[in-house]
Amino acid sequence: MISAYLIHLLIIIIIQLILSLSLQISIGYAGLLNFGYIAFFAIGAYTSTLLTINGVPFLLSLLLAAIIPAIFAYVLSIPTNKLKGDYLALSTIGFSFLVYAVLINWTGLTRGPLGIPGIPKPEIFGYVFSSNTSFLVLSIMIGLICFILIRKIVDSRFGKVIEGVRDDEPALKSLGKNTFKIKSITLMASAFFAGVAGCLFAHFITFIDPSSFTFMALIPVITIIIVGGLASIKGTVIATVILTLIPEILRFVGLPSSLVGPGRQILFALLLLIIIIYYPKGFFGKVEL
Amino acid sequence: MIFLQLLFNGLIAGAIYALIATGFSLIYSTNKFVHFAHGSVVVASGYMLYLFYNLVGINFWISVILAILCAGVLGWVLNRTAYTKLREKKAGSSILLIASIGILIIIESLILIIFGADVKTIGFIKTVKGLEILGAIITPLQIVIIITSIVLFISLLLLMKRTGLGKSLRAVSESRDLVEIQGISSKKLFAYSFIIGSLIAGAAGVLVSLEQNLEPSMGSSLMIKGFTGAIIGGITSVPGAVLGSFVLGIVENYGIWYLPSGYKDAIAFMLLFIFLLFKPNGILGVNKGWIKS
User: Do B276 and A276 touch (CB under 8 A)?
Assistant: First the structure.
């Protein structure tokens, strides 16, 4: 029983980690306050769900669940490209509300608030990852690939250029860099991995509805990357593990289940406020916003 | 007359958005950061009205005044606790925005815990038959909404243009240092802008709770509407924010002529993106450097 619960938690941690690392690319490294990425998570989840339900193989739908959010990110980057910090943040939040409104209302495609049940477990070359243990193995593999790719991106020359966008955009422009392109690619990379996380989430829970992708879902991940520290992969990993485990305590202290959700949100938001007031760099952060 | 009915509906929605947008743009122009928790101040005021009038049973008008005062106090407290601390640490506007999102989540979750997730109705105004004007129906409450908002805009405009406080507030939005040199405390002005903006938000909250029902999560969507209105009109100018909000309300309501009504929110954001793409400074706004041109 305990081990089943632990496996469940580990899978959630891996999904959360991919999501936090993906946001770290745009907020931590590029300094782009992309608060709309819950929408990319949602698009990834819905893409993969709709494809696999209609018989598309899992690997192909995983790939599309990553590419389609990236295309949306490119489209989003066009109107928002000139915007600075908080303006960008609010318009990307607007984008996530837009996607949410479509998910709720386009009932022909998404079944709206009813959600889509019975999402098949992933199947690769005839092997079905039906038990949670095998799903954990799959998540670890996908999580590891994402982790290595993200590390490669941020350590590469391109990663240094992204950090240039954060620290001094005019200087970068004066060196002849096309910052529009750089920012677009950053947002796309961020959306790509958010889509992967969405795909894993959908196939793990096997049921999705728009309520998993509200604005409220933003706060845990923002808290994780701020607590762990911006532009720090190590900090993100540690913060993801700790912050996914802490709210589990609420389940054990006998709080009524209706209070667990909001209690968790308050816990995260308070932690976020305390960190940005007293430790603005987080635990392992290199930069402040 | 569907055309006229939708125009009325648009004006009513616009009046509420405008009340949110004016408070928001007042706080934005003086403090230079996005006070996203403004939306939760609106909702908190609605719930305070519900608490005083429906649960405690105080006279309706006294409850309204208490609810609006609570909103003002809440705005002051938020500024005093979180924002002042962050400003002392020289936090950038992005950090203040993240803080305000955190505050919004805390207030919404607290409302959810205290009042529950179910929809609340104030029920002070009994359903009366609306007046018929040229075939369109408008209820007395909706007339009150429009009149209240117009009165509040004119008073705010007079406050900003005619009084010393208004002049200082406009000055601090231009240059904080010059205001300090003149011996005016910018800290005090920030506090005033929060109190005034939140009182207006409180009025908006009362009107929203009478016109629609109350839900804990409505704060963020109201905030996005107010923000969209403010951007469309030009975020630095309070008249611009009013104008933009009315444009938003009207476009939204004509939009659902063609699309299912659930898409109302989506229409607002499409409008936001169109403006960001083609006219990022808004209808009346001037570029003061937060958008690179």
Answer: no
The residue extents of the domains of chain B are 2-278
- In this structure, what token pair is assigned to residue B104? 């919004």
| Backbone φ, ψ for residue B214 (5° rounding) | -100, 135
Q: Which of A31, A37, A86, A13 is nearest to A231 (CA)?
A: A31
State the best of B24, B80, B98, B259 to mutate against chain A, taking most chain A CBs within 10 Å.
B98
Pair of tokens at residue B197: 């903006």
What residues contact residue B200 under an 8 Å CB cut-off, 6+ apart?
Answer: B19, B22, B23, B26, B152, B156
Q: Is B98 an interface residue toward A (CB < 8 Å)? A: yes
Q: Looking at domain B2-278, which CATH architecture does it have?
A: Orthogonal Bundle (1.10)
Nearest CA in chain A to B28: A86
ipTM over 0.90: no
Could you report the per-residue pLDDT of B160-201, keeping only the tens digit for each? 888 888 888 888 877 778 888 888 888 888 888 899 999 999
Tokens of A219: 């706060």
Instruction: State whether B95 and A280 contact (CB < 8 Å).
Output: yes
Largest distance between two CA atoms of chain A: 60
User: How close does chain B come to A241, measured CA to CA in Å?
Assistant: 21
State which residue of chain B sits closest to A75, comparing Cα positions.
B273
The answer to whether the CB of A85 falls within 8 A of the CB of B291 is no
Q: How far apart are the first and last CA of chain A?
A: 43
Residue pLDDT, tens place only, B265-282: 788 888 888 887 777 777
What pairs with residue B138 in β-bridges?
B131
